[in-house]
Amino acid sequence: MSRKIVQKRQKTFIKKVIEFLTKLEAQSITPEIDGWIAQFTIITRIGLLQITLPKEHDNLFTVFCKFMDKEKYSIFNSVRVNKYSGKWNFHSVDEDFCFDQFESELNSIVIDQYTTDVIFRKWKGEIIALLPHEVCDRSGSVTSYMHVGQHSGANYSHIVRNSTLATEEEYSDLKKEMEHIGYNIRIVKKQQYGRYIKDFNKVRGN
Questions:
Q1: What interhelical angle do 3-23 and 95-107 show, nearest 10?
Q2: Same domain flag for 84 and 134
Q3: Could you tell me if 121 and 63 lie in one domain?
Q4: CB 17 within 8 A of CB 99
Q5: 153 and 76 in one domain?
């Protein structure tokens, strides 16, 4: 593939990333400087994230990211993040794959602008937070959160059948941890099935 074609594809890729960041209301801090096309910052559940887009990067499609809050990124459960520097970069020779991965992972940590429904349950001696209206996969699992393991998928019905509602005293530490990473929590006691189905159909593309 000629260099000219690669450059054209890279420009299209960068434009797409900028449009996505603009939609998320990321703050543009430098529109263009010495070899870099743009820099943005955005508040996430892992603290402030700095995003830098290169004008050209060999034959790769690249988004350079760096978390600025070491206290938060050092406990972020992601194999991508460098626990020492906070770097969280995306590279691929496939522009669609790179963008889709960046879009999905950033969407999962942008700070909540709205409340998130959470049910706190005591399960197997531990406290688990169930997000009953947030379906995380095509099998219908809902998002859950625990001290150990952090975010994961959970079978809502199975957990509820085999657990009890946690008291405020029991869930207070986990609630604080979730709020620390950006959750704006609304505590509920049970799932609204209609809302669950609506999100399930969205995940399945129905």
A1: 20
A2: no
A3: no
A4: yes
A5: no
Asked which of 80, 107, 134 is the last residue of a domain, the reply is 107
Strand pairing class (116-123; 185-187) = parallel
Q: Are strands 142-146 and 126-135 parallel, antiparallel or unpaired?
A: antiparallel
- Its domain, for residue 71, covers 3-107
Q: How far is CA 202 from the centre of its chain?
A: 18
Question: Would you give per-residue pLDDT tens digits along the chain (206 residues)?
Answer: 577 777 788 888 988 999 999 888 888 877 655 555 678 999 887 888 999 988 766 668 999 999 998 877 776 767 778 888 999 999 998 999 999 999 988 987 886 556 789 999 999 999 999 999 999 888 999 999 999 888 899 999 999 999 999 999 999 999 998 887 778 898 999 999 999 999 899 888 76
| Residue 206 CB contacts under 8 Å (≥ 6 apart), including other chains | none
Domain count across the chain: 2
CA distances from 144 to 1, 64, 92, 97 (A): 44, 29, 30, 26
From 3, 37, 188, 112, select the one nearest 28 (Cα to Cα). 37
Tokens of 60: 């790769």
